[in-house]
């Protein structure tokens, strides 16, 4: 049901709301907006509304219902227009269905996986910030004074949204999803796909202005919405840029439609749609959107001045129109303008940051042409794909040049000026910003370049000698369309989808333990900040670790080692949430296991438990650990009431993957094997005693991989990913019964197919077995410090000195 609600019902509800809001704006501004532009204008109106209602803190929780009320009001006031639009859709269903197709293609990895998920996983953790921010702002408004800054949750919200970070897309996202009661984590990717689809209508209108009609215009609009770089950014959940892109194309349409409202019969109110669109772009992307807003303003200013010189519009109506646009724009973008210095500071930080995010190298300027026949927008295509990519880009360049000439031939001077200034803005910005901002600018410009290329197709079709022109135009259109679709298909197959079951289990932990935090979270997964928002999570390996816990990890994304945390620092955390991994060190003795699922364990601090007097990790052979125990026992204070405790290391049978038989071209990623193509790994191992064992697999495994023991299929696993490509994910244990002696494990990656993520991450880091009788918690042994020698001879994870009244009894905690 979650999948149906988020991927199918949610976009329908969101579309109805945006069209309703667009109808209301159309009614207010004089009724000149074409139907194809209504969803995008509605997005702009709802962003403005949600920004204002969350700015007034008391209204923030009512935002979803106020958005619904605005949409319903639009349908009521424009009920006659609704009937006209409905009949138009019935006459031309392919036009109404094309945005649905754009949505389906954008959401293809999730739709074809058939489960609630999102495709930005392991690509860009910014998605977690948007989920977190949307939830917080919709519940608490844009007020941050009450945040607890001692843990990661409060620091993330404060350091992003309390610094004038643009939140326009987030407030629309949060308001619309919470209206349906959807978890934001599952609504996020459908929201991105929907917003991208709203750019289809503007692109269709622009394609028609280029002289294309019917199926030609539909194909042009679809490829302009989904060029390779835009598709890549949609897959990684770049919600700010996707929203800004929709607003940019809507502003271009309003420039093209200037005769309907600029000095037309609708008066000054005709400027309201443009003001809303530009304000929404600023609210979503920040003050940086001003560069694209300036493009529209300059073109329209030139048109307005020309009309005034010719006497077609008098100064007073022109002043009224400008004043109306300025007032509407300032009001719609008020939260961004109130703290203008802060907004400028954020824009400057993004433009000048040396942090390239997930880009290893700058993107190539030729990617603006929308065709990239590689599995990743970050890497160049290889082999024959590279040559074909360059050939298609060269064709797109020639067509774009012809498209520019076609605009002039059609006397589409407003669109030609807008296109020229947009390309100029891209060139200027790309030379004045660093890698991260340059990539965003490249992506936002790509649809305009793709439309220009389709203008070249239009130019071919306009050649008088149709016998030659028609086949040439068809071939050019096919090359553009197939080049874009092939580029997108390769990225679709390389996407890594978020593990649905694991986040559902995490959400159940939040429901079960909400309000009992703060909680120390040991897994590197910043999506936990949203899913475990009821626990006030602190992650030692997050960007913003609690200062008292930072020593538990070597840095951002590094493994968390609880044994490195001072016992006194742990005392502030009633809960510790860990991944279920038998080889990982269990929390100190002051914690007991309260809950265990397939993926996680929740440890609760014992009532009244004081911090341990000393806590040290143990390593090496049992003989070496015996000396460590003796040293720790010697440090115990004199007198009664102190116990020496040690957590016994589990018995494990490790399978040597590096010594296994496997395809020679499987590469290496740190200690793991990269299963880059179909093949089989075979490894031998010895079981010391017969009985029931648990088979554990660690790695990043998106495509389907089959495990077998002694030739018998055990289980197929897929979609098992962690939140960090640097740290392996631990798959839930697989039960097997084995006799004592030698056995053979095989791991098989099957043939490539068209399933989503089939060419995603496939790294096998470790495989090992533990006895099923080991139990869910580490075994604790306790003795008086003077009897430390009784612990010698076994292998332990850690040891500590603790007061008797707070020490756990010997045995399983």
The major pleated sheet works out as: 7 strands, antiparallel
Instruction: Specify the overall morphology.
Output: globular
How many helices in DSSP terms? Answer: 28
Helix content range? 40-55%
Q: Tell me the distance between the termini.
A: 38 Å
Beta fraction: 5-15%
Detail the poorly predicted runs: 806-813
Question: If you average the pLDDT, what whole number results?
Answer: 91
Work out the count of structural domains.
Answer: 2
Counted beta strands: 21
Radius of gyration: 30 Å
Question: What structural class results from the helix and strand content?
Answer: alpha+beta
Oligomer: single chain
Q: How do the strands and helices of this protein lay out in sequence?
A:
Layout: H1 2-28, H2 38-55, H3 63-77, H4 79-91, H5 93-106, H6 108-113, H7 126-140, H8 152-161, H9 168-179, H10 184-197, H11 200-209, H12 214-225, H13 228-235, H14 239-256, H15 258-261, H16 272-285, H17 290-309, H18 315-332, H19 334-338, H20 340-352, H21 384-409, H22 413-430, H23 435-461, H24 466-494, H25 500-513, E1 519-521, H26 528-531, E2 537-538, H27 567-570, E3 575-579, E4 591-596, E5 600-605, E6 614-617, H28 622-634, E7 642-648, E8 653-654, E9 667-669, E10 672-674, E11 679-687, E12 691-701, E13 705-709, E14 712-717, E15 729-730, E16 734-738, E17 741-749, E18 762-771, E19 779-783, E20 796-803, E21 811-812
Parallel strand pairs: 1-2, 1-3
Antiparallel strand pairs: 3-5, 4-5, 6-20, 7-19, 7-20, 8-18, 9-10, 10-18, 11-17, 12-15, 12-16, 12-18, 13-14, 13-17, 19-21
């Amino acid at each position: 049901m979650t999948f149906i609600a988020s991927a199918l019902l949610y976009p329908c509800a969101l579309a109805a709301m945006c069209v309703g809001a667009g109808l209301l704006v159309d009614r207010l501004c004089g009724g000149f907006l074409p139907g194809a532009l209504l969803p995008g204008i509605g997005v702009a109106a709802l962003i403005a509304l949600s920004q204002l209602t969350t700015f007034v803190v008391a209204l923030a929780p009512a935002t979803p219902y106020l958005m619904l009320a605005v949409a319903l009001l639009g349908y009521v006031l424009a009920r006659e227009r609704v009937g006209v639009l409905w009949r138009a859709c019935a006459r031309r269903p392919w036009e109404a269905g094309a945005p649905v197709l754009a949505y389906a293609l954008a959401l293809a990895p999730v739709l074809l996986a058939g489960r609630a998920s999102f495709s930005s996983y392991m690509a860009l953790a910014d998605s977690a910030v948007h989920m977190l921010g949307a939830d917080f702002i919709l519940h608490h408004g844009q007020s941050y004074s009450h945040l607890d800054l001692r843990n990661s949750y409060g620091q993330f919200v404060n350091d992003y949204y309390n610094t004038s970070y643009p939140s326009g897309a987030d407030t629309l996202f949060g308001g619309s999803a919470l209206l349906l009661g959807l978890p934001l984590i599952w609504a996020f990717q459908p929201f991105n796909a929907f917003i991208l689809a709203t750019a289809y209508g503007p692109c269709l209108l622009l394609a028609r202005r280029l002289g294309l009609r019917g199926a030609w215009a539909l194909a042009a609009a679809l490829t302009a919405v989904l060029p390779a770089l835009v598709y890549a950014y949609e897959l990684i959940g770049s919600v700010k840029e996707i929203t800004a892109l929709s607003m940019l194309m809507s502003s271009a349409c309003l420039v093209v439609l200037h005769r309907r409202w600029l000095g037309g019969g609708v008066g000054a109110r005709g400027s309201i749609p443009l003001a809303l669109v530009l304000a929404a772009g600023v609210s979503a992307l920040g003050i940086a959107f001003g560069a694209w807003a300036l493009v529209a303003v300059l073109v329209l200013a030139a048109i307005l001045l020309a009309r005034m010189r010719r006497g077609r519009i008098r100064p007073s109506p022109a002043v009224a129109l400008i004043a109306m646009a300025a007032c509407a724009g300032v009001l719609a973008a008020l939260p961004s303008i109130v703290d203008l210095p802060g907004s400028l500071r954020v824009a400057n930080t993004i433009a000048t940051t040396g942090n390239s995010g997930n880009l290893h190298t700058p993107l190539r300027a030729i990617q603006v042409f929308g065709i990239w026949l590689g599995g990743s927008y970050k890497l160049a295509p290889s082999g024959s794909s590279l040559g074909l990519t360059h050939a298609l880009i060269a064709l797109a360049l020639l067509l774009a040049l012809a498209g520019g000439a076609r605009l002039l031939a059609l006397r589409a001077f407003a669109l030609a000026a807008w296109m020229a200034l947009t390309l100029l803005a891209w060139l200027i910005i790309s030379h004045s910003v660093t890698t991260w901002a340059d990539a965003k600018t490249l992506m936002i410009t790509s649809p305009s370049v793709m439309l220009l290329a389709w203008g070249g197709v239009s130019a071919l079709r306009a050649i008088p000698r149709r016998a030659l022109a028609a086949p040439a135009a068809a071939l050019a259109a096919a090359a553009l369309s197939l080049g874009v679709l092939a580029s997108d298909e390769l990225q679709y197959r390389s996407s890594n989808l978020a593990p649905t079951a694991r986040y559902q289990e995490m959400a159940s932990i939040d429901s079960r333990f909400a309000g009992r935090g703060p909680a120390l979270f040991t897994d590197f997964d910043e999506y936990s900040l949203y899913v475990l928002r009821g626990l006030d999570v602190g992650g030692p390996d997050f960007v913003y670790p609690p200062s008292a816990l930072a020593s538990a990890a070597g840095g951002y994304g590094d493994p968390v080692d609880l044994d490195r945390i001072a016992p006194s620092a742990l005392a502030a955390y009633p809960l510790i949430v860990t991944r279920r991994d038998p080889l990982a060190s269990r929390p100190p003795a002051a914690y007991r296991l309260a809950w265990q699922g397939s993926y996680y364990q929740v440890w609760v601090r014992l009532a009244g438990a004081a911090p341990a007097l000393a806590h040290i990790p143990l390593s090496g052979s049992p003989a070496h650990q015996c000396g460590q125990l003796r040293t720790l026992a010697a440090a115990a204070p004199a007198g009664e009431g102190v116990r020496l405790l040690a957590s016994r290391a589990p018995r494990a049978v490790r399978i040597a993957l590096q010594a296994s038989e496997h395809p020679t071209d499987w590469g290496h990623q740190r200690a793991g094997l990269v299963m880059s193509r179909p093949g089989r790994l075979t490894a031998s191992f010895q079981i010391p005693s017969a009985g029931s064992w648990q088979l554990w697999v660690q790695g990043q495994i998106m495509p389907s991989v089959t495990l077998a023991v002694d030739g018998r299929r055990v289980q197929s696993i897929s979609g098992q990913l962690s939140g960090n490509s640097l740290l392996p994910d631990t798959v839930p244990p697989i039960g097997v019964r084995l006799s004592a002696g030698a056995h053979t494990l095989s791991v098989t990656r099957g043939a490539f197919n068209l399933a989503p993520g089939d060419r995603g991450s496939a790294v096998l880091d470790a495989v090992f077995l533990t006895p099923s009788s080991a139990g869910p918690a580490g075994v604790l042994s306790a003795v008086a410090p003077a009897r430390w020698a009784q612990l010698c001879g076994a292998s332990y994870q850690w040891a500590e000195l603790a007061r008797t009244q707070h020490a756990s009894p010997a045995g399983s905690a």
